[in-house]
Amino acid sequence: MRSVHNTIVHLRWLVCLAVLCMSTGATCIPKRPLAEFKPQPIFSAPPSIEQMAEVVNRSRNIQSLQSNFVTINPNQIRNLDASLVWQRERRFKISGGISRMMGNNFEVGSNEQYFWMSVRDGMRPQLFYARHDEFESQALRRILPVSPLWILEALGISELDPYKVLGAPMTRPDGMLEIATFAPSATGSYTRSLVIDPKYGFTRQVFLKDPTGRLVASASQSEHNFYSSVSMALPHKVLIQLIPAIDPPTEIDVTIGSYVINGLDATSNVGFDLPNQNGYEVINLVQFNQGLPQAVTPIQVAPPGTVAVPPPAAPQQLPPTAYRTVPWDGRTLR
Q: Is the dihedral of CA 216, 324, 318, 280 positive or negative?
């Protein structure tokens, strides 16, 4: 029981790092010229669903994001520095640590098959991973209630399909428009709500509820900057909450200093590989969610052009995991 508890506590910290996913850190955030990046009003009257969809769906113009100027603060513990790269659809990587001078001690990444979270903060580095399809097929997710790919939505990369809208937009007491849509998944239909500014057209909040109606994730967005190259505004401050079914919620405060949009070669797939597993304790998150025994074995990655077969569950028990607490603070995240 002790090793399971320690693994849970350590993984909660990695969840914080996972939600960094789309941001990158620096203690000195560059300031943008307000005249150049200030959003301009789009709507002079309450917009229709189709008009809101047209503005929100400008996110489809974004094929890649990069940033070296983001600060992340998990659970109000301490700011972390990192660097980020994302390329449609599932390719991203963020790595960083306490400071750039001390080097990277964590990495969160994804490619078309897998996502992973690695940490090197002690004598026993750990690598958590899962196949996207296997993770999405699990209804019970103890620590990570949503796929790390949901982070895109938290950072303003949303889409709005008018055919998935559940009823007319609702005007909230603060004047914002809230519109609910259904989001199909392998475990049932989730409900996603977008809170949209009726004047500027960008999203200010996102809520996600599971098929039972329980809130599992939310994001509050502010300090939007307008990017003329894609004709849309992105938030530069985001407060994210993850709410697992069993464990306490996790809160991550993200500040993005600047983005490079569509700066990657669309044909490039370099840098989105699983980390070298040598020296890592390897933990399958899908098996962890199922309560199955873990195996410290290499991840089986299929050669190009073949279909990957997930590694079978091993009969032996995972070696005890010694939780070392986070390196910048003596407290544990509970």
A: positive
How far apart CA 275 and CA 134 sit, in angstroms, is 20
CATH classification for the domain delimited by 2-159+222-290, as one of 1.10.3430, 3.40.630, 2.50.20, 3.30.390: 2.50.20
DSSP bridge pairs for 247: none
CA-based torsion, 142, 143, 147, 151: positive or negative: positive
With a CB cutoff of 8 Å and minimum separation 6, the contacts of 233 are: 39, 156, 200, 202, 224, 225, 226, 227
Across the range 209-233, mean pLDDT stands at 95
Per-residue pLDDT of 133-187, as tens digits, reads 999 998 888 778 888 888 889 999 999 999 999 999 999 999 999 999 999 999 8
Predicted model pTM: 0.76
| CB neighbourhood size of 131 (10 A) | 18
